[in-house]
Structures are given as structure tokens and as C-alpha cells.
Design goal:
Strand order of the largest sheet of chain B: 2-3-1-4-5-6
Number of strands of chain A: 22
Strand order of the largest sheet of chain A: 3-2-4-5-7-6
Largest sheet of chain B: 6 strands, mixed
Number of strands of chain B: 6
CATH architecture of the largest domain in chain A: 3-Layer(aba) Sandwich
Strand content of chain B: 15-25%
Distance between the termini of chain A: 49 Å
Number of helices of chain B: 8
Number of domains of chain B: 1
Oligomer: heterodimer
Strand content of chain A: 15-25%
Structural class of chain A: alpha/beta
Number of helices of chain A: 21
CATH superfamily of the largest domain in chain A: Thiamin diphosphate (ThDP)-binding fold, Pyr/PP domains
Helix content of chain A: 25-40%
Helix content of chain B: 40-55%
CATH class of the largest domain in chain A: Alpha Beta
CATH topology of chain B: Pyruvate-ferredoxin Oxidoreductase, domain 3
CATH class of chain B: Alpha Beta
């Protein structure tokens, strides 16, 4: 053992490696991404890691390997599980041979997600056991337990950390590589009665799953995973799981006069009913502190009904815990002190003098981001024409911000291309654009393009190809040909051409243009707008993180009339106002040259660094 | 002993490295460390923070309101934004150079930074203010702002760490060619 200062996601990765994981597959998504990256970085010989095309592919690859006796892990964010839900629901009936952990990171807030869905509820829906770590150290040991349970019961299990566990850091003890478990998969053993799903098999296995989950509820009650601390004579109790449990512990350390019973729910499904009963007996009230869905609250309410207990269960459903958002320390402090009926001893200094208005800092496209040039080219070309701009998931969602204001819709991965078709069906005189990033294109937009071509829609697909999955921290994807571990052909090669795919599907016109060549880009959009059918433009220019800038913009202060057109049209963070004068922040500028195009006085030029 | 430290600023200013240096120095002293920080979308020019906790009996990586012993702010408005976290009698170290949000350039606000520094002077007994831009030019690189602020934080005595502790962490974690420059920033005194 040795000590390391680890991010929660790194701890999960090292825990999985220590548990002898053989294969890890996933798709990037905040806050889950660093798990797979860490496995790739720290793996020992023989561990295979891949960024799959999407979460469904990842889960299926891992399932095949687990059928063959390998220990496997799949990593994704909560909305990724929606994409992977088809194989997940069926796999729950089929089961696995090697341990299989589906690591799904939830995002209360949400901080960087479309939804506040709760994977604990998904676990109950899919009938799969679920583990909910309360911190970095817990995540490290619990992932090992998850593999053990998965293999012992022949079922995939869900491991559900949240953002404040994934992205927290702690100094913890971890095993040395020499202490890691080694797992040698037996290989795939043919057995059609086991691996081929048919209605009859599903019926039989459904019964077995329900019986197993009832058994697991008892096992989890006795396992030590779900802990109960119940001082003699307590009348009040608190039940919590995940990071909320850690927040409750913090609140309670500052309270000495009341000691409520404390129940930590580490396995929200199957719910540890017997342990819950032990908590509830003799208590007047229990406060459930959790984020997202009231899973623990419903579980305890059910136990009260089943055993005819009078204990009052409080939480989200009773308005004691906010229905949405993150449970900050302040939220938990207030809820717990209020529940215990003690004076809130706020440590926050009293504010007598209110602060000046704070500047809002919404996230923006980086200085020099090629997406800005792409959006601006389409905006320029479509000026005065009826058009709709459907966005998608990625950095380019930020194209919605003023002054670009170029994203009219955004729903989920790959939706834009189909939404554009739907709008066109109702408004055939509108030129409907769908913007999609390169990684999202491969992950979820291909079927949308097939749909458009097959159903003879009229639309323009704009692929914003910056050669990386930028929003989640620059992961490779099928269009880059870079892989996490050497496959046949090494770490590179096998790059898939976006234009080749589009032409193969039968898109009527495909053009590729560098958006930083604004004139060519605007001409291309105008040309496409005058055509009919399914047209595609590939705007190709690398993400600014992928190269070192060699030039920068400078403003000729004599020629500049301070009209601020550069600021008002493109909103580049490298163009700033200093003492009321327009200036270029040389540290941020990449020399993309877009501002040169929009200056009416030709006062901006690009010079070498 | 328990220390709650908040580092805050704007995405790209280097708060994370500063947080890591304190963590490494504390761990070397045998102390337990927990932290939480902004990762993801907000990093792109948004407000960023790092909560750093040192000591025993830590459960949550997050610091509660009124619990921070020190706020190390890389930007004046971000110091004010985090002020509700400062405990009574807590210390504030702040860079007085503002970072203008894109919305301010668009004409969305009259933010100058000076009003925030004034507010801090009214609200906190003795905030330590540094004109980091100017000092960094003297030192020879804008990239050492984080270590410069760290030096001031160590100087305040609140961290219970010495300049030598941080210097060791710098030698271990910073590329060799930048070590001298960072040590100069660490040891800078007004």
C-alpha cells in the first residue's frame, strides 16, 4: 500500500485495476471522463481500454468480454446510460460470467448536463444492484466490492458516484501494482440456453432476478456496506447516501447536544430493508438527505407501510430537502438543524454592506475557437433569409451566447439533425441547419443523416470538425484514428472519413471548407443554401488546444475608431476593453483572423509571434 | 488542527496548480487533505474555485459558509463572490487586477475591479492586496501569479506551512526550467 492524492475518478480507476479489471470501455462525459483516462494511464500489461463510438457500443463490448469471463467496466455520464439503456435492460436478464461494473456518474445541479436524472432509479428500473460511494476513499474500496458482488451473483452491477465524488480529491491509501488481483478469463463457452435472449428465457430469468434481489436486500442489510449508528434512546434519525452522507457528517460534527440515529445507504437498490427496519423501530421521525430522486425516502416510506410503523419520513417529498439541484453544505446544514430543532449557529459573517453587482461569467467559446468562425460564416451567409439553427451537445452549444446567438435548439446527443427535419416538415420555406461536432457525429448523428436521406428531407448538416472531443477534455474519436490501447494496426490508423461516411449514406452534396477562410466559408454556405435535398458542410479546423499559436492580432490605434464592431459581432474573449479602448489580449489571441474580417476600418492585422 | 482554504479566480488563471502545491506540501507534513474544484464547462472563462481542506476528521471536500480560514483570490470580483465562505476573522489574499468578462466588453456591466477591492477593504479587517500583473512583469512571467499569491498566503501564517514546504512541492511538480522563476515568485515580498 502507498498514499496518493487522488481525484475520485482516479480512485475508481485504481480500484478497478486492483480488482483485476481486464477491459474498460466508455464514452467521454463530465463528470465521468477521467476514470477511463486513468485506467489507460495506470493499467498493467494486458488490460484493454477503449473510447467506444458511444455508450451503447461500450456496454455491448464490455458485455461480450464479460460473457467470456473477463472483469469489465463501462464508464459514462448519466445521460450516456439513456443511450446504453437498450443493451442494459436486456443484459439484466442475461447476466454475465466475469464481473461487470457499469460506472455511471450522476451530476446534481446539474453542473454540466442536460438532466438531473438519478441512476439509482435507473438501477431499480433495470433491476440491477447499485452502489453509491460517499467520497474518494469509499469509491476506491467500493468499486472492488462491486466487482465481487457482480461475479458472485452473475449480474452486471451499477456503480453511481456523483460530481462531488468524481471530482473531489483526497489523500488515500491504495494498493501497489504488485498487490493487484490478476484475472485470467476462461473465454467464451457456447451455451445458447444462456446467452441467447428469447421470451421464454426472459420469463424464467425474470423470476430468478426478483428472487435474487429479495435475497440481495437481506445480504446488503448484513453486509456492513449500509451502516447504522443508533444511540440508545434516539427518537430522531437521519438517512443519507453518497456525498449527502458526507455533508451530513460535517454538519453533525458541529452539533454536540443532539445525537440522531444515522443510517448510511450505500446500496440504494436492492434497498436494505432489514437494516432500514432496525433504524426505524422506535424513532418518531427520519430525515432523508439525498440529491436527485427521493430514493431513500421512498424506500423508508415503503418499509414503514409494510411493517405498519408510525415513524414519519421526511425529505424531498415533504419539502424538507430541495426537489432539485445540489445539496450544498449550506442546504444540508439548514435541513439538519431545522429537523433537529436546534438554533442554527450560522458561521457566515453578517453582511451589513451589500457587495457591488458581481460580473456574470457565463462560459464562452475560447479565443480563436474555429466554431466561432463557422457560426459567423453561416450567420453572414443567411442574413435576411428564413433559417433555423439546430444545435447539439458539445463546446459548440456555447454558440447560443450573444453576440453569435446561433443555437435555436439543443436537446440531446445527435438530436439536432432530426429536429431540423421535423421543423422543415412544418415550415418547408425555412432553411434548416443542424450543427454537430465530429465526436457527436460518430456517436449519435449517423442514424439521423440516414433518416434525412431516406425520407428525402431538405436540410443542411454542418459538421464542426475540430479533430477532438473538446468539451470533455480532448479525447480521440473514430474520426481521429487515435486509440487508447494498441489494437490491430497500432495506436493510430483506421481513421474514419466524415465526408466518406456522408457520401456513402447518399447525402446530395458534401463540401469541406476551413471556417477560418471566412470568404470561402460564407460562399460555401450560400451555395448550399441555394440547393435542395440533404446537403452537408464539413467545417474543418483544429481545436485551439491542439496547436501552439504562431501569430496574433494587433490593432492599429490610429485606424481604430473604437466602434467596437469586433466585440459586438463575434464576442471573442481575446478582444477586451481597456480604459474604454478596444485592445487585443495577446496571451489569449491565437491569430485566427476572424476579427480582421469584421473590422470596418481594416484596423486589425495579424502578425507573427 | 483543521484548515479550510478557498482558491478562486477565472478559468485558466492557474488556481488548480496552486491548490495542488498546498496539498502536496501538507501531505509531506503527514496531514490529510481533501479538495473539490470546478471542472468542465465553467472552466471556459467562467468563475472557478478550489476548496481545499487540511486536517483530521474530514468528511466532505466542500467548505461550508463562514468556515474558510483563508481565501486566495486570483481576481477581485471572485474574492467578493466567495466572501460568504470566510469565517469571522479570516484572511483574504487578493490580486487586484480585474479580468473583464466578455459581457462587460459587450457593454453589459460597468465592472472595473476597483469597487470590489474597496468593498473587500470595508468588509475584511486587513486584506492582503497584490497588483499581480505589475509584480509578474517585474519577475519576468505572467504565469507565476499563482505562486506569487501562494507566497503571500504562506506569509500570512494562516496555512501553517512554510515557504520551504511549498518550495519542495514546486521542485517536485514544476518543470525544471521554471523552478527558479517560481521560487522567485514564492519568495517575493512587497
Amino acid at each position: 500500500m502507498h498514499e496518493e492524492f487522488l481525484m475520485g475518478n482516479e480512485a475508481i480507476a485504481l480500484g478497478a485495476l486492483a480488482a483485476g479489471v481486464n477491459l474498460v470501455a466508455g464514452y467521454p462525459g463530465t463528470p465521468s471522463t477521467e476514470v477511463l483516462e486513468t485506467v489507460a494511464k495506470r493499467r498493467c500489461e494486458g488490460v484493454y481500454v477503449e473510447w467506444s463510438a458511444n455508450e451503447k457500443a461500450a456496454l455491448e463490448v464490455a458485455a461480450g468480454a464479460a460473457y467470456s469471463g473477463a472483469r469489465t467496466m463501462v464508464t459514462m455520464k448519466q445521460v450516456g446510460l439513456n443511450v446504453a439503456s437498450d443493451p442494459l435492460m436486456s443484459l439484466a436478464y442475461i447476466g454475465v460470467k466475469g464481473g461487470m461494473v457499469i460506472m455511471v456518474a450522476d451530476d446534481p445541479g446539474p453542473i454540466s448536463s442536460q438532466t438531473e436524472q438519478d441512476t439509482r432509479s435507473f438501477a431499480a428500473f433495470s433491476k440491477l444492484p447499485c452502489f453509491d460511494p460517499d467520497g474518494v476513499s469509499d469509491a476506491y474500496s467500493l468499486i472492488g466490492e462491486a466487482f465481487e458482488y457482480s461475479e458472485r451473483y452473475g449480474t452486471p452491477v451499477i456503480f453511481r458516484p456523483t460530481t462531488r465524488v468524481c471530482h473531489a480529491y483526497a489523500s488515500i491509501s491504495v494498493k501497489d501494482e504488485s498487490e493487484w488481483k490478476r484475472n485470467n478469463p476462461e473465454g467464451f463457452v457456447r451455451d445458447t440456453s444462456r446467452w441467447v435472449i428469447f421470451p421464454r428465457l426472459s420469463y424464467i430469468n425474470h423470476g430468478k432476478i426478483e428472487e435474487r434481489n429479495a435475497r440481495l436486500s437481506k445480504v446488503f442489510s448484513d453486509s456492513g456496506l449500509n451502516t447504522l449508528h443508533k444511540p440508545e434512546g434516539s427518537r430522531l434519525g437521519i438517512a443519507a447516501g453518497g456525498i449527502s452522507y458526507a455533508q451530513v457528517r460535517e454538519t453533525l460534527t458541529a452539533i454536540s447536544d443532539v445525537k440522531p440515529a444515522l443510517f448510511r445507504v450505500t446500496t440504494p437498490f436492492p434497498f436494505p430493508e432489514e437494516k432500514a427496519l432496525e433504524l426505524l423501530r422506535g424513532l418518531d421521525e427520519v430525515l432523508c438527505v439525498e440529491e436527485l430522486d427521493p430514493v431513500i425516502e421512498r424506500g423508508l416510506t415503503y418499509v414503514c407501510g409494510k411493517y405498519n410503523l408510525k415513524t414519519k419520513i421526511r425529505g424531498k417529498l415533504t419539502g424538507d430537502i430541495p426537489p432539485a439541484g445540489e445539496n450544498s453544505r449550506a442546504v444540508v446544514d439548514a435541513a439538519v438543524t431545522n429537523f433537529l430543532g436546534i438554533e442554527r449557529n450560522s458561521k457566515a459573517p453578517e453582511v451589513t454592506d451589500s457587495p457591488p453587482p458581481l460580473p456574470a461569467r457565463p462560459p464562452v467559446l475560447c479565443a480563436g475557437c474555429p466554431h466561432r468562425a463557422s457560426f459567423y460564416a453561416v450567420k453572414t451567409a443567411m442574413r435576411g433569409r428564413k433559417s433555423v439553427f439546430c444545435g447539439d451537445i458539445g463546446c459548440y452549444t456555447l454558440g447560443n451566447a450573444k453576440p453569435l446567438d446561433m443555437v435555436d435548439t439543443c436537446l440531446c446527443m445527435g438530436a439536432g439533425v432530426n429536429i431540423a427535419q421535423g421543423i422543415w416538415r412544418v415550415e418547408p420555406d425555412t432553411i434548416c441547419f443542424a450543427f454537430v461536432g465530429d465526436s457527436t457525429f460518430f456517436a449519435s448523428a449517423l442514424t439521423g443523416v440516414v433518416n434525412a436521406v431516406y425520407n428525402r428531407a431538405d436540410m443542411i448538416l454542418v459538421v464542426l470538425d475540430n479533430s477532438t472531443t473538446a468539451m470533455t477534455g480532448h479525447q480521440p474519436h473514430p474520426g481521429t484514428g487515435v486509440r487508447m490501447t494498441p489494437a490491430a494496426g497500432g495506436e493510430h490508423g483506421g481513421k474514419i472519413s466524415i465526408e466518406g461516411v456522408l457520401r456513402g449514406i447518399g447525402v446530395d452534396a458534401v463540401e469541406t471548407v476551413d471556417p477560418l477562410d471566412q470568404t470561402a466559408a460564407v460562399d460555401c454556405v450560400k451555395r448550399m443554401a441555394d440547393m435542395k435535398g440533404v446537403r452537408a458542410i464539413v467545417f474543418r479546423s483544429p481545436c485551439i488546444v491542439l496547436f501552439k499559436p504562431v501569430s496574433a492580432a494587433v490593432i492599429d490605434s490610429e485606424a481604430c475608431i473604437n466602434c467596437k464592431a469586433c466585440i459586438k459581432t463575434i464576442g471573442c474573449p481575446a478582444i477586451v476593453l481597456s480604459d474604454g479602448k478596444v485592445k487585443v489580449d495577446g496571451a489569449q489571441c491565437t491569430g485566427c483572423g476572424l476579427c480582421v474580417k469584421v473590422c470596418p476600418k481594416k484596423a486589425i492585422s495579424i502578425i507573427s509571434r | 488542527m483543521k484548515k479550510n482554504i478557498i482558491l478562486c479566480g477565472v478559468g485558466g488563471q492557474g488556481t488548480v496548480l496552486a491548490s495542488r502545491l498546498i496539498a502536496a506540501a501538507a501531505m509531506k507534513r503527514g496531514m490529510s487533505v481533501m479538495s473539490a474544484e470546478t471542472i468542465g464547462m465553467a472552466q471556459k472563462g467562467g468563475s472557478v474555485f478550489s476548496h481545499l481542506r487540511i486536517g483530521d476528521e474530514l468528511y466532505s471536500p466542500m467548505i461550508g459558509l463562514g468556515e474558510a480560514d483563508i481565501i486566495i483570490a486570483f481576481e477581485p470580483a471572485e474574492a467578493v463572490r466567495m466572501l460568504p465562505y470566510l469565517r469571522e476573522g479570516g484572511t483574504v489574499i487578493v490580486n487586484t487586477d480585474p479580468v473583464m468578462p466578455v459581457s462587460a466588453a459587450l457593454g453589459g456591466s460597468g465592472y472595473t475591479g476597483g469597487e470590489m477591492v474597496e468593498y473587500l477593504r470595508r468588509s475584511v479587517p486587513h486584506p492582503v492586496t497584490l497588483e499581480c500583473g505589475k509584480i509578474c512583469r517585474e519577475l519576468g512571467s505572467p504565469k507565476v501569479m499563482n505562486v506569487l499569491l501562494l507566497g503571500a498566503a504562506v506569509g500570512s501564517g494562516v496555512l501553517s506551512l512554510t515557504r520551504d514546504d511549498i518550495a519542495d512541492a514546486i521542485r517536485e511538480r514544476v518543470k525544471a526550467q521554471y523552478v527558479e522563476l517560481n521560487l522567485k515568485a514564492l519568495n517575493y515580498t512587497v
